[in-house]
């Protein structure tokens, strides 16, 4: 049994989780938590280079790199070497894509808020229209697919509500 030392804390003995299902679930939760923390770090410090490689208990590799695998490994292998112009351009492009995706996620959050019947503020509506102005063909196709899935469900719900409303507004039977 190995021991792990946490800064400012007592040593905690680590034991192998014997149950395979429990071990896989624990790995998955820890990996997810670690990647969320890494994402928040990247969001807070846009110019950070970050890489995580982990292996599941079954030996399957998982990785998280920002902005690119090459830039992170390059800094690790040769920390004092400046990146080449090509890798610098690739890294800058990756950072731009992350920023764009973050903006798209923010806009989707606004749309979700509107769809979930929350009253958006004036600023949210302004952002929504800005998003709509900048929407591309792929986004429109995704939205159409989503609407195709949601439309029958909404129609069914509407019909159920109308039927419920109609039956509750009808006069009771004569023998009641």
UniProtKB/TrEMBL annotation:
One GO MF term: protein dimerization activity
| Tree of life domain | Eukaryota
Is the keyword Ribonucleoprotein in the record? no
Which key words are in the record? DNA-binding, Nucleus, Transcription, Transcription regulation
From the UniProt record, give one GO term of the biological process aspect.
regulation of transcription by RNA polymerase II
- Main localization (coarse): nucleus
What name goes with this protein? Answer: MADS-box domain-containing protein
User: Where does the UniProt annotation locate this protein?
Assistant: Nucleus
Q: Where is the MADS-box domain?
A: 7-68
What lineage, starting at the top, does this entry show?
Eukaryota, Viridiplantae, Streptophyta, Embryophyta, Tracheophyta
Which PANTHER family does this one have? MADS BOX PROTEIN (PTHR11945)
Q: Which GO terms describe its cellular component?
A: nucleus
């Amino acid at each position: 049994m190995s021991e792990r030392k946490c800064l400012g804390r007592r040593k905690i003995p680590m034991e192998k989780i014997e149950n395979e299902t429990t071990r896989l679930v624990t790995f998955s939760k820890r990996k997810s938590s670690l990647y969320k923390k890494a994402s928040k770090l990247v969001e807070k410090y846009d110019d950070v280079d970050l890489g995580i490689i982990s292996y599941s208990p079954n030996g399957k590799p998982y990785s998280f790199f920002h902005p690119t695998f090459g830039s992170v490994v390059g800094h690790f292998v040769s920390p004092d070497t400046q990146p080449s112009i090509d890798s610098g351009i690739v890294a800058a492009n990756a950072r731009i894509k992350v920023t764009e995706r973050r903006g798209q996620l923010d806009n989707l959050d606004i749309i979700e808020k509107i769809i979930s019947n929350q009253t958006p503020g004036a600023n949210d509506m302004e952002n929504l229209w800005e998003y709509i102005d900048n929407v591309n063909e792929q986004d429109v196709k995704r939205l159409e697919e989503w609407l195709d899935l949601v439309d029958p469900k909404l129609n069914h719900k509407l019909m159920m509500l109308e039927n419920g409303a109609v039956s509750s507004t009808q006069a009771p039977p004569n023998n009641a």
